[in-house]
Amino acid sequence: xxxxxxxxxxxxxxxxxxxxxxxxxxxxxxxxxxxxxxxxxxxxxxxxxxxxxxxxxxxxxxxxxxxxxxxxxxxxxxxxxxxxxxxxxxxxxxxxxxxxxxxxxxxxxxxxxxxxxxxxxxxxxxxxxxxxxxxxxxxxxxxxxxxxxxxxxxxxxxxxxxxxxxxxxxxxxxxxxxxxxxxxxxxxxxxxxx
Length: 194
What we know:
Layout: E1 41-42, E2 50-51, H1 57-67, E3 71-75, E4 81-86, H2 87-91, H3 94-102, H4 111-114, E5 116-117, E6 123-125, H5 126-130, H6 134-144, E7 148-154, E8 160-167, H7 168-175, H8 179-193
Parallel strand pairs: 2-3, 6-7
Antiparallel strand pairs: 1-8, 3-4, 4-5, 7-8
Helix pairs in contact: 6-8
């Protein structure tokens, strides 16, 4: 016997509507000896903000501002990682050097012209991260001269998947320190242990 269900009445979606985005709650009062996983942006809990290589630099910068991030993953047409674009790439000397070498105007600069390509990206494995502490991550990022660190997991098929991101800004916020203070604290702990 078929059961009848009362229908619910739909309404129209209003212009300007958005969608829910997951947010990660980071622990407060983190110190440099705490597990590194405490300061990892976990991409199973937070949606990564992405862009494409053929988008203009200005559009990518506006996206960073809108979402409050300082790094975008750049995806190719197959949604594979083509590179990374950071706020430093956009606001630093790269655009000026590009225009000096290639000509054109500021509006002509595309993400692909400034991004760090996939072949140059260094990553940390999630297995190493799980056994590291915050100080080790800060020291590693500082030694590499980077503001961000990508963390990968490797599937049974050998393919790498970016599963997390370290951001020195996020780490400093959780340590309740400025960036210079954070690096100084890590250096003092490292020199004491040597």
